[in-house]
């Protein structure tokens, strides 16, 4: 297991009060695997990524255990975390224009990772930067190295971001909506590049996105988040074929599908509860068409519904499927599976 | 007679940077012709910078078109004076992309919805109140929320308020410029459903501008695909999506991620990015990225021609 | 090469601006009521005497002729003669201006050395103790009037403690260094005259700090807010995600981006300080341009007013040019065009 996240909770201080943004988030990522985290705005998917990298605002309270290659990095000091960031674990962001420093050349920005984490000489670093630029499919690398981000197109900028993240051959790559700001033809290029890089390097990828299409294209396994909690996790084909949680179902039904026109789409009534006013029971209960009494008061735990497929919903807790013994316990025990 | 008929519309912007520098022309819309039938939806789809938003604005004369004609119910719009234009605006309304930026944060929803009625002197105070209350009920917002301010609503609610504002004057045509792009999928579907219902009830016509191919497919009857200020393909939605003719449309559709992991497709990956509209390529604007481009494509500007029944494309090789 | 062409183009553009300013001030100062001839001759002058002097001074010619004569003079290094000091204006400016320039440069140096680091620290330790401290400090600087602060300094360091001089540019008995730039500290250093240097520097301290107090406050606040904004940027998060240390992110990525608006403000304050250090100059009896300008206005000394105005305009434009050039050097997004 490359990354093991156990019961991670996050509280941020907002207007003088702490509010819980993430609540006992657990999941894992294997080598060579792409795990998608999907959900709508405010579900905590980006905060999950920032928690893994510990790139959180001041006054953030982070609980739980995060293990990267069996190292408990959640206990690391800030200084020790700096050695992990950009080295074993790196990250790319949504908007490649604002994510690149406008005043530094492309070469300098990619080189910085090498400068921080390797002992390569100046010449060696330059050679490596040129190779990285070639690897991400950018031509005329030796000129590009001296250019500035504003001189490049959106697609090229995102390739630069990827080259930067790949500089120290990370084991884990976290991508936060990497193609959302890009046009669809450019998105296709970037997704292809990422699949190619994964094949070549066997690194683990976390793909954070709101786009179920992107999930279907690149992910092996999916985690669905809602209001700061994981509500469902399954292999990608299983999730699309057999979604269990009413929220996941609602999401799937609300996307327009090719070949079906002018028909009413499924939609989810109401809005996401704010962190300050979380319902006592299931957080989706207020919007759920199948909500029962128990949903309003008791929090459902992640329950195995099929091999590798779990969901946190009271609909499945008593239907011949035994729930996990402890909250968020990750290793499914086959004995419980009927 | 179509409700809206646009002929050879051009919208050129002159960009001049500072004193003593040469001026450059951005051809945002460069000779677009299209028709919108009553009660139907024309989807305009394309990537950023293709000129689709400029097209919407110049049809409504929010910017004065450089050249060409826009006929609404058979009447030429481009040379109307201010007073006539104001009258006509009752019939053609716009819904913007960003529901956060397009509603005045200091006005209540009631004020926002009443403004168009007041401007056009519709009814007295009592009648206007009735219209507004019917409107909000229609879009699924409670009457007692009328005195709330925009920030008290979610993004989806705000976009529905934006639609209600456009509907207040009973228009015949709504230009919707990326109306669901800022919304989450579950909210996006609510807005799309509302738009479809309203169309059926009120026989509305939409010019639906979007970069999202699946949304356009869902809501449109006909589709125009734009690239660098020009329409490269035009036709009924089924024909465009099932049998795209233009290489750009083919690439665009093949690039669209399908939310079905079992469906693996051959993908046409286009090289490079969209060229700048300041210095568009000669000949066919797509030739720099087209996998089938020949020498001729660099020289000849292809016209949008009917290739099969009601299916138009601008490509010399079809 | 691009940079040189840009600067050259900007210098060309300065010419019409300066012509415009000279026309404006010339006509304004000649249309306000008050007769310089009468002022020179005093209350007992006869109308004939005044008329004679007016004729002699060329005041009876049409304005455009007077202006033409003035411009012609400028090209020969002649700004007319001050009716008050009875000296060529150019000589007066040469005498008073370096004193003001020296004081202003010194105050600016203090401002930059204190204001920018304070602002950066304040931003990086937002809401913590160092931030609270610098914010109060900056507020005090902005809130206290310069002349009051100057008097306070005089009282404390000159009268009470007696450790710093209270007026003038040099101690009695120290002769000014040989004139090169007219700025005593610079000239003394250039000629190796350490006695004069020490004396000149000590005299600069109180007026320098007084003048800097206000600008330090402004620069600190501007640096803080600009840095806070930059620290929220996506590229700062990217730099952190690469594993950069706090200092590396702050000084390697944020500062260069955050400094831009500070430079603009610095330029503006510099221009203002040059023309507006009257109060400080009065408090410390600093023989500078401010006092000269006030005298010139009081005595309707048109040639002197014109000379001062033109000089300040020229400086303002030059400072602007320097700032714009710095902007272009720092930010690759601004192309020279």
TrEMBL record, chain A:
Gene Ontology terms describing biological process: peptide transport
GO MF annotation: an example: ATP binding
Cell membrane recorded as keyword: yes
Membrane found in the keyword field: yes
InterPro entries attached to this UniProt entry: AAA+_ATPase, ABC_Ni/Peptide_Import, ABC_transporter-like_ATP-bd, ABC_transporter-like_CS, Oligopep_ABC_C, P-loop_NTPase
GO annotations of cellular component type: plasma membrane
Domain ABC transporter: 3-252
Keywords: ATP-binding, Cell membrane, Membrane, Nucleotide-binding, Transport
Subcellular location(s) of the protein: Cell membrane
Main subcellular location: membrane
Protein's membrane topology: Peripheral membrane protein
Ranges in a coiled coil: none
SMART domains, alphabetized: AAA
Family statement: Belongs to the ABC transporter superfamily.
Name of the protein in its database record: ABC transporter ATP-binding protein
UniProtKB/TrEMBL annotation, chain B:
Keyword ATP-binding: yes
Gene Ontology biological-process annotations: peptide transport; transmembrane transport
Listed SMART domains: AAA (SM00382)
MF GO annotations: ATP binding; ATP hydrolysis activity
CDD domains attached to this UniProt entry: ABC_NikE_OppD_transporters
Domain ABC transporter: 9-253
Recorded family membership: Belongs to the ABC transporter superfamily.
Name by which UniProt lists this protein: Dipeptide ABC transporter ATP-binding protein
Organism this protein belongs to: Exobacillus caeni
From TrEMBL, chain C:
Annotated CDD domains: TM_PBP2 (cd06261)
Keyword Cell membrane belongs to the record: yes
TM segment ranges: 12-32, 103-124, 136-159, 200-219, 258-280, 300-323
Record-given protein name: ABC transporter permease
Keywords recorded for this protein, A-Z: Cell membrane, Membrane, Transmembrane, Transmembrane helix, Transport
Entry membrane topology: Multi-pass membrane protein
Domain of life: Bacteria
GO annotation, biological process: transmembrane transport
């Amino acid at each position: 297991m490359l990354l093991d996240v156990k019961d991670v909770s996050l509280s941020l201080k907002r207007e003088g009060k702490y509010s819980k943004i993430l609540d006992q988030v657990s999941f894992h990522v294997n080598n060579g695997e792409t795990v998608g985290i999907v959900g709508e705005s405010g579900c905590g998917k980006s905060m999950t990524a920032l928690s893994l990298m510990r790139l959180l605002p001041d006054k953030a309270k982070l609980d739980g255990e995060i293990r990267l290659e069996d190292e408990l990095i959640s206990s690391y000091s800030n200084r020790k975390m700096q050695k992990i960031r950009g080295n074993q674990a790196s990250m790319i962001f949504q908007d490649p224009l604002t994510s690149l420093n406008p005043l530094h050349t492309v070469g300098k920005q990619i080189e910085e990772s090498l400068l921080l984490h390797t002992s390569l000489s100046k010449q060696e670093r330059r050679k490596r930067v040129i190779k990285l630029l070639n690897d991400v499919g950018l031509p005329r690398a030796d000129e590009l190295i001296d250019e500035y981000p504003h001189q490049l197109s959106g697609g090229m900028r995102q390739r630069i971001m990827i080259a930067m993240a790949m500089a120290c051959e990370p084991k884990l790559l976290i991508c936060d909506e990497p193609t959302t700001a890009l046009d669809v033809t450019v998105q296709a290029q970037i997704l292809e590049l990422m699949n190619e890089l994964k094949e070549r390097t066997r690194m683990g990828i976390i793909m954070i996105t709101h786009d179920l299409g992107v999930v279907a294209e690149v992910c092996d396994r999916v985690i669905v988040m809602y209001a700061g909690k994981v509500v469902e996790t399954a292999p990608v084909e299983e999730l699309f074929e057999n979604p269990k949680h009413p929220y996941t179902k609602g999401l799937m039904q609300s996307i327009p599908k090719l070949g079906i026109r002018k028909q009413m789409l499924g939609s989810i009534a109401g809005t996401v509860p704010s962190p300050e006013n979380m319902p006592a029971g299931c957080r989706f209960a207020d919007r759920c068409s199948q909500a029962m009494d128990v949903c309003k008061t008791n929090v459902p735990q992640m329950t195995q519904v099929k091999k590798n497929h779990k969901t946190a919903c009271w609909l499945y807790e008593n239907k011949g499927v035994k729930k996990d013994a402890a909250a968020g316990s990750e290793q499914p025990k086959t004995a419980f599976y009927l | 007679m179509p409700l809206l008929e646009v002929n050879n519309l051009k919208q050129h912007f002159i960009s001049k940077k500072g004193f003593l520098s040469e001026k450059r022309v951005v051809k945002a819309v460069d000779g677009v012709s299209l028709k919108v039938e009553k009660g139907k939806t024309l989807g305009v789809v394309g990537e950023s910078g293709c000129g689709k938003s400029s097209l919407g604005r110049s049809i409504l004369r929010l910017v004065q078109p450089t050249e060409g004609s826009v006929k609404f119910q058979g009447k030429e719009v481009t040379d109307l004076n201010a007073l006539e234009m104001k009258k006509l605006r009752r019939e053609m309304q716009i819904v913007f992309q960003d529901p956060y930026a397009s509603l005045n944060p200091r006005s209540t929803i009631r004020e926002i919805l009443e403004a168009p009625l007041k401007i056009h002197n519709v009814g007295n105070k009592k009648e206007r109140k009735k219209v507004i209350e019917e409107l909000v009920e229609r879009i699924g917002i409670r009457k007692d929320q009328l005195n709330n301010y925009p920030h008290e609503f979610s993004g989806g609610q705000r976009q529905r308020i934006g639609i209600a504002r456009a509907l207040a004057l009973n228009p015949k045509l709504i230009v919707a410029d990326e109306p669901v792009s800022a919304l989450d999928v579950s909210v996006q579907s609510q807005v799309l459903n509302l738009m479809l219902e309203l169309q059926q009830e009120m026989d509305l016509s939409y010019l639906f501008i979007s970069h999202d191919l699946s949304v356009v497919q869902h809501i449109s009857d006909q589709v125009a695909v734009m690239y660098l200020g020009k329409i490269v393909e035009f036709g009924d939605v089924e024909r465009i999506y099932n049998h795209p003719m233009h290489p750009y449309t083919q690439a665009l559709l093949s690039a669209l991620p399908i939310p079905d992991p079992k469906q693996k497709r051959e993908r046409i990956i286009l090289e490079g990015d969209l060229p700048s509209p300041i210095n568009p390529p000669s000949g066919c604007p797509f030739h720099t990225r087209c996998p089938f481009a020949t020498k001729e494509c660099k020289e000849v500007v292809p016209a949008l021609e009917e290739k099969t029944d009601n299916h138009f494309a601008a490509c010399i090789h079809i | 090469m691009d940079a040189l062409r840009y600067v050259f183009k900007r210098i060309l553009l300065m010419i019409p601006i300066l012509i415009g300013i000279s026309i404006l001030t010339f006509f304004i100062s000649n249309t306000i009521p008050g007769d310089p001839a009468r002022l020179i001759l005093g209350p007992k002058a006869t109308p004939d005497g005044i008329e004679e002097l007016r004729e002699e001074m060329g005041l009876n010619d049409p304005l455009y002729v007077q202006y033409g004569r003035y411009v012609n003079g400028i090209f020969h290094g002649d700004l007319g003669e001050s009716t008050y000091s009875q000296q060529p204006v150019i000589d007066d400016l040469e005498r008073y201006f370096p004193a003001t320039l020296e004081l202003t440069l010194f105050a600016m140096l203090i401002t930059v050395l204190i204001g920018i680091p304070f602002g950066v620290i304040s931003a990086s330790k937002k809401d913590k103790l160092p931030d609270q401290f610098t914010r109060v400090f900056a507020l005090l600087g902005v809130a206290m009037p310069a002349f009051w602060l100057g008097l306070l300094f005089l009282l404390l360091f000159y009268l009470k403690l007696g450790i710093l001089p209270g007026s003038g540019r040099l101690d009695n008995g120290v002769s000014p260094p040989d004139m090169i730039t007219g700025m005593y500290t610079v000239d003394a250093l250039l000629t190796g005259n350490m006695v004069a240097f020490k004396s000149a520097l000590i005299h600069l301290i109180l007026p320098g700090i007084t003048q800097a107090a206000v600008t330090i406050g402004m620069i600190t606040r501007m640096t803080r807010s600009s840095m806070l904004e930059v620290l929220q940027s996506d590229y700062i998060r990217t730099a952190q995600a690469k594993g950069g240390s706090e200092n590396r992110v702050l000084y390697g990525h944020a500062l260069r981006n955050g400094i831009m608006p500070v430079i603009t403000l610095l330029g503006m304050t510099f221009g203002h300080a040059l023309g507006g250090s009257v109060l400080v100059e009065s408090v410390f009896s600093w023989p500078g341009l401010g006092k000269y300008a006030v005298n010139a206005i009081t005595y309707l000394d048109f040639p002197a007013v014109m000379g001062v105005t033109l000089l300040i305009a020229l400086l303002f434009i030059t400072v602007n040019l320097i700032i714009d050039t710095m902007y272009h050097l720092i930010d690759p997004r601004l192309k020279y065009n």
